[in-house]
TrEMBL record:
It comes from freshwater metagenome. Residues 1-35 are annotated as: Disordered. This is Unannotated protein. InterPro entries: TipA-like_antibiotic-bd, TipAS_dom. SUPFAM superfamilies: Antibiotic binding domain of TipA-like multidrug resistance regulators. Residues 7-122 form the TipAS antibiotic-recognition domain. Residues 23-33 have a biased composition (Basic and acidic residues).
Length: 124
């Protein structure tokens, strides 16, 4: 719980002046525990699609991998804030530049952080 508060404090300090942050904050303030679980499930589905594509050896620009990219963007857009392709590419950069994100994805599957980054960057 303390770690979540640390992340929220950091996010507020870094992005509170952005429309995406405000939209996410406004949406999340209305969510029930069930809504929060559904949002988490959406992220998990996208992660599972990326993991499957990586395990199958699909290139980052394959239809299967790009389906994961779309699921990732839609999960963010549906639950948090309107996530454009450009915003998603900014997130992809952060997945490699922030060790916490990299570790999260690497704990799920070796090579996943780079794979997600490359897949998102290959998207249009």
């Amino acid at each position: 719980m303390a770690q979540e508060q640390d992340y929220e404090s950091e996010a507020q300090a870094r992005w509170s002046d952005t429309p995406a942050y405000r939209q996410s904050r406004d949406r999340m303030s209305k969510y029930s525990p069930e809504d929060l679980q559904a949002a988490k499930n959406g992220a998990n589905v996208a992660q599972a699609l990326f993991i499957e594509a990586l395990r199958m050896g699909y290139p980052s620009d394959s239809p299967q991998t790009q389906a994961a990219v779309l699921a990732h963007r839609l999960a963010i857009s549906n639950w948090y804030y309107d996530c454009s392709v450009e915003m998603q590419k900014n997130l992809a950069q952060m997945y490699l530049s922030d060790d916490r994100f990299t570790a999260h994805y690497e704990n799920l599957q070796k090579g996943l952080a780079q794979y997600i980054h490359d897949a998102i960057m290959a998207g249009k």
